[in-house]
Sequence to fold (126 residues):
Amino acid sequence: MNKPKNAFILRQSPWGVSRLESISLPQDVIVNGWSEAKGLINENDYLAFREIIRKACYPDQKSLRKVGYGASTMWRFLKRMAVGDWVVVPHWGGKFYVAEIAAGEPFYADSKEATETHTCYRRRVL
Fold:
């Protein structure tokens, strides 16, 4: 690993379940939730991006608190992380995983497994 330009912390536990050992490590990817919010990768307007998440994941919320958290987390994951950046993923027992964003764009894994585990949004890592 080379010295990164940026480093991010990603608590990747969609729906409260860590997917580090079951998906990330075996597949060399990092994952994020909000899989129901399809179309985020190609949306470059933040307000429209946030609205996709609101409609798909939080339609009954009166405030934008949860929507804002989801949108800001996904925006960093999809739009701000770049090849060569480091990602630190906290894990149980005070351990953590450090990865480097690999070449390639973020992608939406539209598979049964990814949908069931809420891990459709992914990025390749080294």
